[in-house]
Amino acid sequence: MDKLDIKLWSLAAKGQIVPDRSMLKTSEQIKAIKKSAALNTAVLDHVAEHIHAGMNTAQIDRLVYDFTVQHGGIPAPLNYEGFPKSVCTSVNNVICHGIPDEQEILKDGDIINVDVSTILDGYYSDASRMFAIGSLSPRASKLLRVTQECVERGLAQAKPWGHLGDIAYAIWTHAQRNGYSVVEEIGGHGIGLEFHEEPFVSYVTPKGSEMVLVPGMMFTIEPMINEGSPDFYIDEDNGWTVYTIDDGLSAQIEYMVLITETGAEVLTK
Known about the structure:
The protein is of the alpha+beta class. About 30% of the residues lie in helices and about 25% in strands. Strands 1, 2, 4 and 5 form a four-stranded antiparallel beta sheet that branches. The protein has a three-stranded antiparallel beta sheet with strand order 3-12-11, with no helix packed on it. A three-stranded antiparallel beta sheet has the order 6-10-13, with helices on one face.
């Protein structure tokens, strides 16, 4: 056993949940994943330059596909478990997994989550941003602000030898203080060598709970913050799109992070 193995064994013996060594990325893997993440960020920047009222969400899908493949990548969502497009576009009351559609026209006052995931040389990256279309209502503006604050507060708790629950607690308490709920059944995930890896990252668990954060772990911080109830339903026709149960607004911002010896490094956002 090396020092890390001994430390993990000691924590496990005390009843802590520790990651398997296979969940810890090597320096070579990290270097390659960072290249994928850089492209993922560039794709989101490209969307930010072109998104506007009057365009349809299928045009966003085309922007993502064209830019990604022109730079040597593959859009990870395309044909993933049957998903038909290259990006998720979730507007207003859509929590996640919105499918781009020529009939869905962005209008003034809309909020939209654009969730971009990229494969480059076999390595995966993932992040999403919220975009404000035109002038927002005060309620929509507040939701976007608080969602950003939730992610930043969660990121601040992503410390080596802390716990995933520390991130969750920071996010959940801030959302609650501002009158919002956090979706419970859908969370973040490990990423890098596959699109979705362990661990599952909840945003509603207590401080000090869940898996220990160990340098080399890589996962997403992506809470879904709802205006009303945290409950949802899935579109029966397409089997993907997740809507708020009460038609309230929902927002999500996703960072992909690497736990280091000193904190957390944001790889793409």
